[in-house]
Amino acid sequence: MGPIIMGIVAAVVVWGGLLASIVWLMRRPERDDYPPGGVDDERDDADIIERDT
Amino acid sequence: MSLASTRVPREQFTGQVGFILSAIGSAVGLGNIWRFPGVAFENGGGAFLIPYLVALLTAGIPILLLDYAIGHRFRGAAPTSLRRLGRRFGAWTESLGWFQVAMAFVIALYYTAIIGWALSYFVFSFDLRWGDDPGTFLMSDYLQVAESEGFFGAIVPSVALPLAVIWIVAIVVLALGVQKGVERVNVIAIPVLAATFLVLVVRALLLDGAVDGLAAFLTPDWAALTDASVWLAAYGQIFFSLSIAFGIMITYASYRKRRSNLSGPGFVVAFANSSFELLAGVAVFSTLGFFAFQQGVAVGDLEGLTGIGLSFVTFPAILSEMPGGAFFGVVFFGALTLAGFTSLISILQVTSAAIQEKFHIRPRPAAAIIGTVSAAISFALFSTTTGLYVLDVADHFTNNIGVVGSAIVMSVVTVWLLRRGPELAYHLDAVSTLRLGRVWLVLVGVVVPIVLVYMLGTAVVAIVRDGYGGYSTSFVTTAGWGAIAAMLVGAVVMTLVPWRDAHEIEPWPP
């Protein structure tokens, strides 16, 4: 297998992998069946008071 | 006023895109540009792709997702998350987190110096200031390297100035927090970096001899696949390239809201990192092909194909001979500076977040404290005539001993000692669109420790048997093993410092 074919294979596998993972993520960016809960910001012990940033 | 009433919400990325770009910004760094092309060339050329992809899928992505799972489930920087992971053994696991923070702290000290060099060379490119002897220019004129290794040489103003610029900008970004600082920088920088890489590739492909360079880069040496050292090199490249196992991805994942997809973005980040590496390989070897063509030698006969030699000696030599070399140099060193800076921000965020949580302070004071202390040490060690020696040894030991050791301990402790692997696998699958199930657990619990123990053993044996870099034993002991020892002591000390607000959380999903 020559360098040209290896170049094509590398491009298809690596950049194809990137493209495939992006397309997969765009089609299903988030789950639509999360377990109950987890809707609070992240701390269970205090309400959100202000944004830090 | 109690701490609970003054507690502010954890910072967050604005969403999936901000997180992904920030994680890519962390992963894509100097190693993508100056390490991958040479490592691939020296380890089978095109055939290297096979162990590289195997390493990506069996170790790189699994450890990346382990970091994501720990940070996302336990909602904190490495010490916080690992303390919560450890439950009644929390003090022990917290110390692992502080060891990771200590590594990030040390890496930031010298990483900043290298970015400062890249910034200098970005400026030098406009008039190709290195002349016709870039090696002498780098070592004698610019770095003014001392004749022998040591610590605390004389300050070199031309190195100190860009170092100061990088530290000031980094501290400002850090002080702005996750959304306005880290995320905003990456959202701007990563598209710019991608465009810059494409410009480099197109320009490089148009050079005489580019085809020969690409042929040297991609011609497969299938016999290399039977060589264990080639596989070790592939795992090493993947491991050091993805910003894993020293707290960055734990910290970044903790800034995602709870209902967030993890594995899908993980694959995007991992393949984006590899895509940048492949682009860098094409650009670097096309350019090396041009240089070999000019010199009338084979690409394999060129010297300085990786690391500092490639970027600051070989490339400037090529730029001096290249038509439009100044433009190419500006783009190349601009990309190097940008790639390094986005990684630096993530490294500093590890320390900043850990300090914020332990001492219950906000991003600005944390940035001021971390930035001031780090910058002072960075100046003292790396803007001097002996800085290059300390940098070389500290980098080798921190990566090959510290980071690899940290990954081994993290996977063994999580999966085998604490038995929290199934919980983390459940967490990943419960929030992700791409479910990996027990495959991920087997990779993290079995494949990763075996490969990394072999890597660590090989590195330790090589150092003990051969020393490192031709330096004196006392210098390697002090700058190398001493740095590791200092990080361990720092980890223990920071663990012993009481938390100002060590509240626990209820992991979700339950």
Written description of the protein model:
The complex is a heterodimer of chains A (53) and B (510). Chain A is mainly α. The C terminus of chain A is likely disordered. Chain A is rod-shaped, with a radius of gyration of 21 Å. Chain B has 510 residues and is an all-alpha fold. Chain B has a single domain, classed as Amino acid/polyamine transporter I, CATH 1.20.1740.10. Chain B is 75% helix and 0% strand. Chain B contains 21 helices and no strands. At the A-B interface, helix 1 of A face helix 1, helix 10, helix 11 and helix 14 of B.
Task: Provide tags for this entry.
heterodimer; A: 53 residues; mainly alpha; rod-shaped; B: 510 residues; Amino acid/polyamine transporter I; 21 helices; 75% helix; globular; disordered N terminus
The residue-averaged pLDDT of chain A reads 79
CATH superfamily of chain B: Amino acid/polyamine transporter I
Low-confidence runs of at least 5 consecutive residues of chain B: 1-5
Strand content of chain B: under 5%
Q: Give the low-confidence spans of chain A.
A: 43-53
**Cα-based radius of gyration of chain B, to the nearest Å:** 22 Å
Enumerate how many helices of chain A there are, as a single number: 1
- The residue fraction in helices of chain B comes out at over 70%
CATH class of chain B: Mainly Alpha
Total strands of chain A: 0
CATH architecture of chain B: Up-down Bundle
Mean pLDDT of chain B: 94
Largest interface, C-beta within 8 A: A-B, 40 and 57 residues
**First-to-last CA distance of chain B:** 32 Å
What is this entry, summarized?
The complex is a heterodimer of chains A (53) and B (510). Chain A has 53 residues and is mainly alpha-helical.
Topology of this structure?
The complex is a heterodimer of chains A (53) and B (510).
Chain A: H1 3-27
Chain B: H1 3-6, H2 16-27, H3 30-34, H4 36-42, H5 49-74, H6 78-86, H7 90-124, H8 134-142, H9 157-175, H10 177-205, H11 210-218, H12 228-241, H13 248-254, H14 263-295, H15 307-321, H16 325-359, H17 363-382, H18 387-417, H19 421-431, H20 437-466, H21 473-496
